[in-house]
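Journal club prep — side note

Before the paper discussion, L.F. wants everyone to see what a predicted structure for a comparable chain looks like in C-alpha coordinate form. Sequence:
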Amino acid sequence: MDLIKKIWPVSFQVRKGNVGSLVWRVILSVVLAAVLSIVFGLLDNLPLIGWIFSLLYSLVDIYLTAGIVFCFLVFFQVGPFKN
Protein backbone atom coordinates (compact mmCIF):
# COMPACT_ATOMS: atom_id res chain seq x y z
CA MET A 1 0.00 0.00 0.00
CA ASP A 2 2.91 2.35 0.70
CA LEU A 3 4.19 1.85 -2.84
CA ILE A 4 0.81 2.85 -4.27
CA LYS A 5 0.79 5.96 -2.08
CA LYS A 6 4.24 6.89 -3.37
CA ILE A 7 3.31 6.42 -7.03
CA TRP A 8 -0.08 8.23 -6.81
CA PRO A 9 0.40 10.82 -4.02
CA VAL A 10 -2.27 13.22 -5.29
CA SER A 11 -4.97 10.56 -5.19
CA PHE A 12 -4.45 9.96 -1.50
CA GLN A 13 -4.90 13.62 -0.57
CA VAL A 14 -8.67 13.22 -1.02
CA ARG A 15 -10.60 13.17 2.26
CA LYS A 16 -13.85 11.37 3.02
CA GLY A 17 -16.79 13.76 2.92
CA ASN A 18 -14.80 16.55 1.26
CA VAL A 19 -16.33 16.69 -2.21
CA GLY A 20 -14.21 19.70 -3.16
CA SER A 21 -10.96 17.77 -2.81
CA LEU A 22 -12.35 14.92 -4.91
CA VAL A 23 -13.64 17.20 -7.66
CA TRP A 24 -10.39 19.19 -7.73
CA ARG A 25 -8.23 16.06 -8.18
CA VAL A 26 -10.51 14.56 -10.84
CA ILE A 27 -10.66 17.82 -12.82
CA LEU A 28 -6.88 18.16 -12.56
CA SER A 29 -6.41 14.64 -13.97
CA VAL A 30 -8.89 15.16 -16.80
CA VAL A 31 -7.35 18.50 -17.84
CA LEU A 32 -3.87 17.02 -17.71
CA ALA A 33 -5.02 14.09 -19.86
CA ALA A 34 -6.56 16.47 -22.40
CA VAL A 35 -3.43 18.61 -22.67
CA LEU A 36 -1.17 15.59 -22.96
CA SER A 37 -3.50 14.13 -25.58
CA ILE A 38 -2.97 17.19 -27.75
CA VAL A 39 0.80 17.21 -27.24
CA PHE A 40 1.27 13.49 -27.82
CA GLY A 41 -1.16 13.62 -30.74
CA LEU A 42 1.12 16.10 -32.48
CA LEU A 43 4.25 14.12 -31.65
CA ASP A 44 2.61 10.88 -32.76
CA ASN A 45 2.77 12.02 -36.38
CA LEU A 46 6.58 12.08 -36.43
CA PRO A 47 8.02 9.42 -38.68
CA LEU A 48 10.05 6.58 -37.15
CA ILE A 49 9.55 7.61 -33.50
CA GLY A 50 5.82 8.31 -33.46
CA TRP A 51 5.08 4.88 -32.06
CA ILE A 52 7.21 5.70 -28.99
CA PHE A 53 5.05 8.74 -28.24
CA SER A 54 1.93 6.68 -28.82
CA LEU A 55 3.16 4.13 -26.28
CA LEU A 56 4.11 6.87 -23.80
CA TYR A 57 0.67 8.44 -24.09
CA SER A 58 -0.97 5.07 -23.45
CA LEU A 59 1.07 4.65 -20.26
CA VAL A 60 0.30 8.19 -19.07
CA ASP A 61 -3.39 7.66 -19.80
CA ILE A 62 -3.41 4.45 -17.76
CA TYR A 63 -1.61 6.26 -14.90
CA LEU A 64 -4.15 9.12 -14.86
CA THR A 65 -7.11 6.76 -15.08
CA ALA A 66 -5.80 4.70 -12.17
CA GLY A 67 -5.30 7.92 -10.21
CA ILE A 68 -8.95 8.87 -10.72
CA VAL A 69 -10.06 5.42 -9.61
CA PHE A 70 -7.88 5.69 -6.48
CA CYS A 71 -9.40 9.12 -5.75
CA PHE A 72 -12.88 7.60 -5.67
CA LEU A 73 -11.74 4.58 -3.63
CA VAL A 74 -10.14 6.86 -1.02
CA PHE A 75 -13.16 9.20 -0.99
CA PHE A 76 -15.60 6.35 -0.36
CA GLN A 77 -13.16 4.53 2.00
CA VAL A 78 -13.30 1.23 0.12
CA GLY A 79 -11.22 -1.67 1.41
CA PRO A 80 -7.59 -0.83 2.23
CA PHE A 81 -7.97 2.73 0.93
CA LYS A 82 -8.90 4.20 4.31
CA ASN A 83 -6.88 7.18 5.53
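L.F.'s comment for the group: The chain has a mean pLDDT of 90. Keep this in mind when we get to the figures.
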